[in-house]
Write a structure and sequence with these properties.
seven-stranded mixed sheet, 53% helix, 508 residues, single chain, alpha+beta, disordered N terminus
């Protein structure tokens, strides 16, 4: 993978990845498209309309977005359209922040250098924590009426009803992008992309494993941070940020609201009164913060694993325990332990490989969308975000190599144990063969004696049979047995030769 990383940097001047200058000017005539919602046909649900909106005919209809459909249909649309959110769904999951920047006319652009140092707070500000029903009702309001030009949506621990609120309130313009975004969320897929279908869309998905220690055990599970920035121009855009905070790695949405901190950035000392107005800068900033968080989580996982596996590594250098390393019991306890360890290490290793390869692909192309040629201060700031990301990617590469080395070590230990066990079994089989040979030799001795005794015990034998006849018969049988046993191979060869000659004679 490192060789691929080095070669990918040779494409940093590809002219295909250039930010469209039309986004730098207000496109007010296109704003009304944000308020055009999906319309359902007869016998069609809003979920069907969302999934089928501008879907390619080449997609298999029966299996397209099956995971998303199955997840969203766990919720009921009636719970969103009710005047008040039902009691079972009143948990506050969404932090919404709306504001607009009055600057910029139909043919003017922003001075981003000034915005980076002293950004305006904006006007027509509105923020609050919402449950799924309140979120849906706010999203269904017309944005041109409430002035929500820059909208950030932060969702903690996404639920089916909250997903349905996103689906039902989506504009037709961004429905396909949102559909893919949610599908990747449900499937825990790692992903980085910048595209410009009708407006622009910037997206990342960062799955990881969260390891937490409880009083009774250490539990681990998958978690995910993901962000989607979609917009019409650099004034009118929306952020969808979904995070998993089941494991205590994230502050509550009420904390972010009370402290006036930007939730998608994870706080990080960035107050909402000091907003980022450039969508590309916002994407890079959130990505740098979240990938730093994910790197810390991965470091925690790998370090904990290394601590657990130290006893196995120490046994290699301990003469007293080295012999036990290649000894297993009848239940193959040590072999099973090594196999389970290899499986866990490969699970984490493969997850890291997917993350790193996805970043390498993104770095080879779409990163160029974040190059600024006409503003040195902004370009320097954005390069600092990319440098921070690359620093964390380097740490992730180190963790991947560490996991790879331990996989190889435990595979070798397991193979050594299996080979040692096979050698022990082979030795036992050899000893058993020797014992059988000894038993056979003893049988050769006693077989003539037993046969002679049986013959002289028969009722047809005359009463005057002497001991001399018994001894002569015993000698004859013993000699015949010895002759047969020690010349069995030669006799078999002679017999086969006679058979061949016999069949050859009669066939001619």
């Amino acid at each position: 993978m490192e060789s691929y990383s080095r070669s990918s940097r040779n494409h940093l001047n590809d002219p295909l990845f250039v930010w469209d200058k039309k986004f730098s000017i207000r496109r007010q005539q296109a704003y009304q498209a944000e308020d055009i919602r999906l319309q359902t046909e007869p016998q069609q649900t809003i979920v069907d309309a969302f999934i089928e909106e501008r879907i390619s005919r080449l997609y298999p209809l029966q299996y397209s977005y099956t995971a998303l459909r199955k997840y969203v249909t766990k919720a009921r649309m009636s719970d969103l359209t009710a005047p008040a959110t039902p009691a079972g769904h009143t948990k506050k999951l969404v932090l919404l922040d709306d504001r607009r920047d009055a600057s910029g006319g139909a043919h003017s652009t922003r001075n981003w250098g000034g915005y980076a140092q002293y950004p305006p707070e904006g006007e027509r500000k509105w923020s609050g924590v919402l449950d799924a029903g309140e979120f849906y009702r706010r999203m269904m309001e017309k944005r041109q009426d409430n002035g929500a030009e820059r909208r950030t949506i932060y969702i903690a621990d996404m639920t089916p009803l909250c997903t349905l609120a996103v689906v039902a309130s989506a504009s037709r313009l961004h429905a396909p992008v949102l559909r893919d975004y949610l599908q990747r969320h449900i499937s825990y897929r790692v992903f980085f992309r910048v595209s410009m279908p009708f407006g622009f869309a910037m997206e990342f998905h960062l799955p990881y494993y969260a390891l937490r220690k409880s009083p009774m055990l250490i539990s681990d599970s998958r978690a995910l941070h993901l962000l989607l920035v979609v917009g019409i121009d650099e004034w009118y855009w929306t952020v969808y940020c979904c995070v998993d905070r089941y494991f205590g790695s994230e502050e509550t949405i009420q904390f972010y609201l009370d402290q006036h901190l930007d939730a998608p950035i994870g706080g990080a000392g960035r107050p909402t009164g000091f907003p980022v107005w450039n969508p590309r800068e916002y994407f890079l900033l959130v990505l740098s913060r979240r990938i730093r968080q994910v790197t810390r989580e991965w470091s925690n996982v790998v370090i904990t694993l290394e601590e657990r596996l130290e006893s196995h590594e120490d046994s290699i250098f301990n003469e007293r325990t080295l012999a036990d390393t290649f000894v297993d019991d009848n239940r193959f306890t040590r072999t099973k332990e090594y196999s389970w360890t290899v499986q866990v290490l490969r699970l984490f290793h493969n997850s890291l490989v997917k993350l790193l390869e996805s970043w390498e692909s993104f770095q080879a192309g779409e990163v160029q969308y974040f190059r600024v040629k006409d503003n040195d201060d902004l370009d320097k700031l954005w390069r600092s975000y990319l440098a921070s990301i690359e620093e964390d990617i380097t740490e992730l590469r180190f963790l991947r190599r560490s996991l790879q080395q331990r996989i190889e070590m435990f595979v070798n230990m397991r193979n050594g144990l299996v080979n040692a066990s096979a050698l022990v079994e082979s030795r036992a089989a050899t000893e058993q063969g020797k014992n059988i040979g000894s038993l056979t030799r003893v049988t050769v001795v006693y077989l003539p004696l037993s046969l002679a005794t049986s013959i002289f015990s028969m009722a047809i034998m005359p009463r005057e049979a002497s001991w001399t006849a018994y001894v002569l018969l015993l000698i004859l049988l013993f000699g015949s047995t010895i002759l047969v046993v020690f010349n069995l191979g030669l006799m078999t060869t002679l017999w086969q030769s006679v058979r061949r000659r016999f069949y050859s004679y009669f066939s001619n």
